[in-house]
UniProtKB/TrEMBL annotation, chain A:
It comes from Neobacillus bataviensis LMG 21833. The chain crosses the membrane at residues 12-31, 61-84, 96-114, 141-158, 187-213, 220-244, 264-282. The keyword Cell membrane applies. One of its GO terms (cellular component) is plasma membrane. GO terms for biological process: amino acid transport. Its main location: membrane. GO terms for molecular function: transmembrane transporter activity. Keywords: Amino-acid transport, Cell membrane, Membrane, Transmembrane, Transmembrane helix, Transport. This is Inner-membrane translocator. Belongs to the binding-protein-dependent transport system permease family. LivHM subfamily.
From TrEMBL, chain B:
GO terms for molecular function: ATP binding; ATP hydrolysis activity; branched-chain amino acid transmembrane transporter activity. Residues 4-237 form the ABC transporter domain. This is Branched-chain amino acid ABC transporter ATP-binding protein. Keywords: Amino-acid transport, ATP-binding, Nucleotide-binding, Transport.
UniProtKB/TrEMBL annotation, chain C:
GO terms for cellular component: plasma membrane. PROSITE patterns: ABC_TRANSPORTER_2 (PS50893). This is Branched-chain amino acid ABC transporter ATP-binding protein. It comes from the Bacteria. It comes from Neobacillus bataviensis LMG 21833. GO terms for molecular function: ATP binding; ATP hydrolysis activity; L-isoleucine transmembrane transporter activity; L-phenylalanine transmembrane transporter activity; L-valine transmembrane transporter activity. SUPFAM superfamilies: P-loop containing nucleoside triphosphate hydrolases (SSF52540). Signal peptide: none annotated. Pfam families: ABC_tran, BCA_ABC_TP_C.
From TrEMBL, chain D:
It comes from Neobacillus bataviensis LMG 21833. Pfam families: BPD_transp_2. It is a multi-pass membrane protein. It comes from the Bacteria. This is Inner-membrane translocator. GO terms for cellular component: plasma membrane. InterPro entries: ABC_transp_permease (IPR001851), LivM-like (IPR043428). It is found in: Cell membrane. The chain crosses the membrane at residues 7-24, 83-104, 111-128, 162-180, 210-235, 247-272, 284-309.
Length: 287, 237, 255, 347, 384
């Protein structure tokens, strides 16, 4: 029983990270119909920038995260401006390849700039907390809570503000949004900004429990894609639920089935769900 | 001073010139109709006025200001609303949300928006009935009404209507033109593209006839109505 | 034997009943028209017959066979062709290429034939091309056969859609608003073409809002409203039907 | 007409060049690289057939490449089958698995299909990685034999291997050429352009898509089997997503949906990355942006760019002959106005 | 074939800045390297390459080495293979054809296997930085395995941990082949000694985002000892998370990980009290050459060298000595025949590992083991 609860918590932690990464991915997909393969690289950049801010500039963890959100958000904006914007009329495959190009570049850049070795990120929340025989570290509790807060804020932003409604409108018809006076370029940039910011948050939260290195984005990106397709591409609740499903299936799968095959479990789960419901759990019919 | 004027405007898609050396003037309070068969360049002209396409040559002035370098969203802020071809609705949003998006430029004026909602629901009671349905689930005609309603929500000084009667039932077409007239009487200037010359000329002050991207004929409604070629091509025997 | 009929045909989308218990028979060799207000369920009715949607209940019987659960390609093979309300064509191909594949369903050659260049493939390729030329001639588009569909005028697109439907060798074609977005002059041309199709022995069923045209060419009209059939009969009868005038035609209908 | 002739000439020139290539150089390394580019080309054709002609972008092709390679490896190394029997069987196995995967994955469309196959590819990779009893896991399969000779022809040397791979490449090109220029090819393009419409004109889209999918996995499997007998050692990494990305890059740089794109793209990138080697780890700093820029400015790859340039030139000529009556459209992929309308209706 | 060219090839740069003017009398020997220099394994590839480069620069700095009365300098030609066997194969072909390299270093078993397909035919030596036993078992004479066999660690590690903590062990090594082979051997030995393996799984550091789940599962079995290992940094994370989850026992650290590198992640040695592993080069007192090497390496590459750099460094020296003994810089077979001389003649000032013998296609030497007690690294005597 204790193990179950401990593993549920572990699943929740990792699921929170997945959900944050997947959210950024699904947002860009939902609004601009770009499957951004470079999203993992943004995540990686987020990790490095927070780390650099802390170690080189001595910023506090939270301040470093804030700077990281801004910088990675801006990288996202640049990507939109210089790559995806010119490609908005092109067939969908081109976005993917362009994104791969960006991915290659950013990884090489990180290797060039920060070196290729593993680095670890210090955290002010290293304390271990024991509650009823269960072990939590502050950092992990922080991940879970922060992810929740970010998701709620994002939800409120999309559902309750006019700007949020604008984003949703644009996801459904870009030209239509343009014609009611929405500056669609701005919204596209904003979307990438948010997406990059989410990646930075996810990386900064999870880096202290793992490591920072050029390939760190690859750990999450494939899973993030699994999640958003599981949840129905472009669906925000889908990304959140999908993130947690994957987190739980990994921790419980590793515990009760097999650690070696736990990744396969997650992917097979996906194949089964999609075989039954080809457009994902939260898709709204049609395409 | 005309409200809107196009001076020697040409528009290209790639190397193909879709609109060639067009001059149009729309005065405050008028209904002006653009006639022309398919592919003549009406929609392109509309897209250009709205800033979705950029003229390769020529100038567009609105209220005396040159606007041809403005982006589409700025144009809406200036007071030009368009109900586009293909409607361009937000299919997964409800009718009500679509209309609210229409009021994007007025988003800080809550009272005014409320007023506009009433106005649009008044014009199109069916939209009120379906206010919580997704726009994508409406029939073609209902969607057309929603598109017009959405354009109205920005309280435009000039409204561009691109073939609002396409695919609509006769009863609805009739209502549609009545609504257009009503909107016009309430003070909105209207530029209308139509195939249905008969109905359009009935409510219009003047018109232009497009052929292969150029204006081949212009005049008051009466003049055009009386023109044999127009009758033959656009009104039917 | 009845040519094509629907029995209690019903389609629900969630809570909405788009087509409600419609019984309709289509007469062979005639022009059967369907009219009705926007959202009445006309296009949905077509979608049900052509296998694009599955009926919620009821049947579609074509020449004695229940086709209500067949996939659309099988229905096409049986001789039922259709066009779409929003002209749906292979935009990036030429007119000829569009129409050539239209006859694909009457051919048997497969991938192996392609790889080994069998005589059957060569024969069938010629056959498809011939068919394509024939129908393009029929719809009077032979002079634009090399153009990309994307560059055609609306009317030419409509004709290409007709040609594509005809290339499948249909016994019956369903045309969804063939004259929408086409000017009156050209509308007459299309009407003429439809008549020509019937003369060739093809049964036509069409949806249209252009009353002038419908009243002129239809042999029989069904009126849908809110998914239900509210009237059926000859153009004369429909024109004067009170219910129809109230629901659809309005006062100055026949302008 | 001129264009067709051109295309044909280019192809003939390429064939002649590749036939005499080993005679032009003593350098085994060049032959080695050429042989491996030929192998990749076969895989890229697999991707091109599916993505370029039916519009379904499969990201599982490295998986099928790996299945082909591992089937051959396991059948020769572990089951000690005769090489050519194993070769044949590895194609059969790839085809059968392709059929299975196609059956489930082709129910999805567009981005869903892409990502769905991405995941399937990853599953294939994981299975290879984890199923140690069969695949030797991360250790990889060692000692895969070179093809055994057929009659007097032996495949031990670099050069003879080169010709063997060239033979299969030419076979694949021929098959592709015939498919593309047949009724089947038209059918696939019709499906790419509009699946709904294809269905309503009586084309069984599922059957056609499945056929193409299986054939395209067969190409990938063939490439994999050739790879295994060429490198003679395989590890799970050959099934990883980065291999799919590589194949895709070759295809897009060359020109998707074109017959010669896979040849051109693979050749250029493979050789380019060899020469960029001198930049060591920093070459991705150049290669990444170059790839992105290429996609932005030449969306239909180099082959597309050349043919666009050709049409433009011809058009100019015609224009000079008969003033501005020719209508030249912009890039053909610009959607017509009708499509967005459809999207509104279908949500 | 002549691998000693008077002029350096156009596309290669000499690794050392040694005076180029003197090359008139000296020949250049090109030494090949193919390994991961980009991608996730780049850090590993770079470290191995650094060791080779450093050795070459030192040798060149002293004016090169003399073979058959002629002076030669070394030139390292390195190519990136992204950790892929086929790329390694292509690189090797290129190195042989364009640079005539008699020796090609590669730091991964996949690359070695790919090279073994043609190295005997094309006559070049593989400097195999891998402990995969199979590379030596296939009977490829021209393969020289650089790292020592790890079997020797089994006994000292097991003895130490069993005595200090107990007989129940959980396995959490890296999912590489290396880690799996290690596990297998350790399992056999541990059980032979009367111990019990209560949990046995591996962690793929290239795919795992968080180790809490698997560590929780391992600790559920109440082990006394954890067997961990892989790249140092993630291994350190595993140890750290095990401590966070309340683990109080000891660690057996596989030889790929170095406790000094792990310390950079855990912050102090305290967290690793009770660990046993290989003596990190920087902490080793076994050879007077080590502090000097560590200092030089640190100056050059800004980090403390581990065995990846150290072993390849000494490996380069051994090859040079073997060339001298063989009297040839290009005949791979002759050089191979003199590998024992190469080992015997390692100059004292570079002898950072105590290699004595060249047997079974690899080097054999004394093993150095260290444990962490009270926050300090203490050497452990290995009984022969
Ligand atoms: N995006 C585009 N790319 C290339 N050509 C285009 C594009 N949009 C329109 N055209 C071409 O420009 C010409 C004018 O088209 P436009 O849509 O303005 O005509 P229209 O008068 O609105 O016709 P309709 O009555 O069909 O709406 C046509 O030949 C059309 O094919
Ligand atoms: N796929 C669908 N999902 C949900 N509702 C639908 C769907 N297709 C059609 N409807 C609804 O069914 C009703 C009938 O639509 P249909 O398109 O058949 O009307 P129609 O008679 O063709 O109208 P129009 O003349 O405007 O084209 C409408 O209320 C429409 O909103
Ligand atoms: C903004 C979009 C991605 C919204 C998304 N369709 C949702 O489910 O809320
Ligand atoms: Mg138009
Ligand atoms: Mg309809």
């Amino acid at each position: 029983m204790e193990i179950l609860i401990q593993q549920l918590f572990n699943g929740l932690t990792i699921g929170s990270v997945y959900a944050l990464v997947a959210l950024g991915l699904t947002l860009v997909y939902g609004i601009l119909h770009i499957p951004n393969f470079a999203h993992g690289a943004l995540y990686m950049m987020g990790g490095y920038i927070t780390l650099t801010m802390m170690t080189k500039f001595g910023l506090h963890y939270w301040l470093a995260i804030f700077v990281s959100i801004i910088i990675v958000g801006l990288i996202g904006v640049l990507m939109e401006r210089f790559v995806f914007h010119p490609l908005r009329e092109a067939p969908p495959i081109h976005d993917k390849i362009a994104a791969i190009g960006i991915l290659l570049f950013l990884e090489a850049f990180a290797q060039f700039f920060w070196g290729d070795e593993y680095q670890s990120m210090p955290t002010p929340y290293g304390q271990v907390v024991q509650i009823m025989g269960l072990t939590f570290t502050m950092q992990r509790i922080l991940i879970v809570v922060a992810a929740l807060v970010v998701m709620i804020l994002l939800y409120l932003f999309l559902k309750k503000t006019f700007t949020g409604a604008t984003i949703i409108a644009m996801s459904q018809n870009r030209e239509g949004a343009n014609l009611v006076g929405v500056n669609t370029n701005k919204v596209a940039m904003l979307t990438f900004m948010i997406s990059g910011g989410l990646a930075a948050i996810a990386a900064s939260l999870s880096a202290p429990i793992n490591l920072v290195f050029p390939g760190m984005g690859q750990l999450v990106i494939l899973k993030a894609f699994v999640i958003i397709i599981l949840g129905g591409m472009g669906s925000i609740p889908g990304a959140i639920v999908g993130g947690y499903i994957l987190g739980f299936s990994e921790s419980l799968g590793a515990t009760y089935i097999s650690n070696d095959y736990k990744d396969i479990i997650a992917f097979v789960l996906l194949v089964i769900i999609l075989t039954v419901k080809p457009t994902g759990l939260f898709s709204k019919g049609g395409h | 001073m005309p409200l809107l004027s196009l001076k020697n405007v040409s528009v290209k898609y790639g190397s193909f010139t879709a609109v060639h050396d067009v001059n149009i003037q729309v005065n405050q309070g008028e209904i002006v109709v653009l006639l022309g068969s398919n592919g003549a360049g009406k929609s392109t002209t509309f897209r250009t006025i709205s800033g979705l396409s950029k003229p390769s040559i020529g100038e567009i002035h609105f209220e005396g200001k040159k606007v041809n370098r403005r982006s589409a969203d700025q144009i809406v802020h200036l007071g030009i609303g368009q109900c586009p071809e293909g409607r361009k609705l937000f299919p997964a949003m409800t009718v009500h949300e679509n209309l609210r998006m229409g009021a994007y430029v007025l988003r800080r004026k809550k009272d005014e928006i409320k007023h506009l909602f009433d106005h649009v629901y008044d014009l199109f009671p069916i939209l009120n009935e379906k206010r919580n349905d997704a726009a994508g689930s409406l029939s073609g005609g209902q969607q057309q009404m929603l598109a017009i309603g959405r354009a109205l929500m920005s309280k435009p000084k000039l409204m561009l209507l691109d073939e609002p009667s396409v695919g609509l039932a006769p009863l609805i077409v009739e209502q549609m033109f009545a609504v257009i007239q009503k909107i016009n009487q309430e003070g909105t200037t209207i530029l209308l593209a139509e195939q249905n010359a008969n109905a359009a000329l009935k409510i219009a002050d003047k018109g232009y006839v497009f052929e292969n991207g150029s204006i081949v004929l212009e005049g008051t409604s009466e003049e055009l109505f009386a023109n044999d070629e127009v009758r033959k091509a656009y009104i039917g025997a | 034997m009845i040519f094509l009929e629907t029995r209690n045909l019903t389609k629900r989308f969630g809570g909405l009943v788009a087509v409600n218990n419609v019984d309709f028979t289509i007469e062979q060799g005639k022009i059967n028209a369907i009219i009705g207000p926007n959202g009445a369920g006309k296009s949905t009715f077509f979608n049900l017959i052509s296998g694009f949607h599955r009926p919620s209940s009821g049947q579609v019987i074509f020449k004695g066979q229940d086709i209500s659960t067949l996939p659309s390609n099988k229905i096409a093979e049986l001789g039922v062709a259709r066009t779409f309300q929003t002209t749906n064509l292979f935009e990036q191909s030429t007119v000829l290429d569009n129409v050539i594949v239209g006859h694909r369903l009457r051919t048997k050659s497969n991938l192996a034939d392609a790889i080994f260049r069998t005589p059957r493939l060569k024969r069938e390729e010629a056959q498809c091309r011939e068919k394509a030329m024939e129908v393009l001639e029929f719809v009077e588009l032979n002079n634009v056969s090399d153009k990309l569909v994307g560059s055609l005028t609306q009317e030419e697109k409509k004709r290409t859609a007709f040609a594509l439907a005809l290339a499948t060798d249909p016994e019956i074609v369903f045309l969804d608003e063939p004259a929408a977005g086409v000017n009156p002059d050209e509308t007459d041309g299309l009407a003429e073409l439809i008549n020509k199709m019937v003369d060739k022995g093809i049964t036509v069923c069409l949806i249209e809002h252009k009353m002038q045209m419908i009243m002129k060419i239809a042999d029989k009209i069904m009126v849908l409203n809110y998914g239900e059939k509210i009237a059926e009969g000859l153009p004369e009868e429909i024109r004067n039907n009170e219910t129809v005038i109230k629901a659809y035609l309005g006062g100055s209908a026949i302008a | 007409m001129v264009k067709v002739l051109n295309k044909r000439n280019i192809i003939i020139a390429l064939i002649v060049f590749s036939a005499v290539f080993p005679l032009l150089t003593e350098n085994n390394y060049l032959i080695h690289i050429m042989t491996s580019s030929f192998i990749w080309m076969i895989g890229v054709y697999g991707l091109n057939l599916l993505a370029g002609y039916t519009g379904y972008l499969s990201l599982a092709h490295a998986g099928f490449f790996a299945i082909g390679a591992y089937s051959l490896g396991i059948l020769t190394v572990k089951a000690h089958l005769n090489f050519w029997l194993a070769f044949l069987l590895s194609l059969v196995i790839t085809g059968l698995l392709g059929l299975l995967v196609g059956l489930i994955s082709l129910r999805t469309k567009e981005h869903f299909f892409a990502i769905y196959t991405l995941c399937l590819g990853y599953i294939i990779y994981l299975v290879i990685d984890k199923w140690e009893g069969l695949t030797e896991g991360v250790r990889g399969l060692i000692g895969i034999p070179a093809p055994t000779g057929i009659g007097p022809i032996k495949f031990e040397t670099e050069v003879s291997h080169y010709y063997l791979v060239l033979f299969f490449l030419l076979l694949v090109v021929l098959i592709m050429y015939r498919i593309v220029h047949s009724l089947s090819g038209r059918t696939y393009i019709a499906i790419r352009n509009s699946e709904d419409l294809a269905q309503t004109i009586g084309i069984s889209t599922m059957k056609n898509k499945l056929t193409v999918f299986v054939l395209s996995t067969l190409f990938a499997g063939l490439a994999g089997a050739l790879y295994a007998s060429f490198v003679r050692f395989i590890g799970p990494d050959i099934g990883s997503i980065s291999i799919t990305f590589d194949l895709l890059t070759y295809l897009l740089v060359g020109g998707i949906g074109t017959l010669s794109g896979p040849l051109v793209g693979t050749l250029i990138i493979v050789w380019l990355s060899q020469y960029l080697q001198d930049f060591q780890e920093n070459r991705m700093l150049i290669f990444g942006p170059v790839l992105t820029l290429l996609i932005i400015f030449y969306p239909r790859g180099l082959v597309g760019a050349v043919s666009a340039w050709n049409t433009k030139r011809i058009a100019k000529k015609e224009q000079r002959l008969s003033h501005n009556t020719t209508r030249i459209k912009g890039e053909p992929f610009i959607e017509s106005e009708i499509i967005p309308d459809k999207k509104v209706k279908e949500g | 074939a002549c691998n000693s060219t008077e002029k350096k090839p156009a596309n290669t740069k000499p690794a050392a800045g040694g005076g180029e003017s003197k090359t008139e009398e000296a020949g250049t020997v090109n030494i090949g390297y193919t390994g991961p220099l980009s991608g996730p394994a780049a850090f590993y590839g770079e470290r191995t390459l650094n060791g080779i480069k450093m050795a070459a620069e030192e040798i060149n700095g002293e004016g090169g080495f003399e073979v058959g009365g002629k002076k030669f300098k070394l030139n390292i030609v390195s190519l990136d293979d992204k950790y892929l066997p086929n790329e390694a194969g292509a690189n090797a072909k290129r190195l042989i054809q364009e640079n005539k390299t008699p020796i090609i270093f590669t730091p991964h078993s996949g690359g070695v296997f790919a090279l073994q397909v043609f190295n005997q035919q094309d006559k070049f030596l593989i400097g195999a930085y891998t402990s995969e036993p199979k590379v030596s078992e296939v009977g490829n004479e021209l393969t020289v395995r650089i790292p020592p066999r790890y079997d020797g660690y089994l006994k000292p590690f097991t003895d130490y941990e069993m005595e200090k903590f107990g007989k129940k062990i959980a396995f959490l090594p890296t999912a590489s082949q290396y880690g799996k082979d290690w596990s297998e051997k350790l399992k056999a030995h541990w059980e032979k000694e009367g111990g019990k393996v209560v949990f046995n799984s591996s962690i793929d550091f290239a795919k795992e985002t968080d180790f809490f789940t698997i560590v929780t599962n391992a600790l559920k079995e109440k082990p006394d000892v954890l067997f961990i290992g892989g790249a140092s940094e993630p291994t350190a994370k595993v140890a750290k998370q095990a401590r966070e989850l309340g683990f109080k026992g000891g660690f057996i650290v596989m030889d790929q990980a170095k406790v000094d590198e792990m310390k950079a992640v855990t912050g102090s040695y305290d967290l690793m009290n009770g660990s046993i592993g290989v003596m990190p080069l920087s902490e080793s007192k076994n050879s007077p050459a080590i502090p000097d090497f560590v200092k030089k390496y640190k100056e050059k590459y800004g980090e403390t060298p581990g065995s990846e750099a150290g072993l390849n460094y000494i490996g380069m020296y051994i090859f040079v000595e073997a060339m001298k003994a063989a009297g040839s810089v290009d005949d791979a077979e002759k050089i191979q025949a003199k590998m024992q001389d190469g080992v015997s003649n390692i100059p004292d000032n570079v002898r950072i590992y105590q290699f004595n013998k060249f047997t079974g296609g690899g080097f054999d030497g004394e093993l150095e083991v260290a444990a962490i007690e009270d926050g300090k690294v203490v050497p452990i005597k290995v009984a022969k």
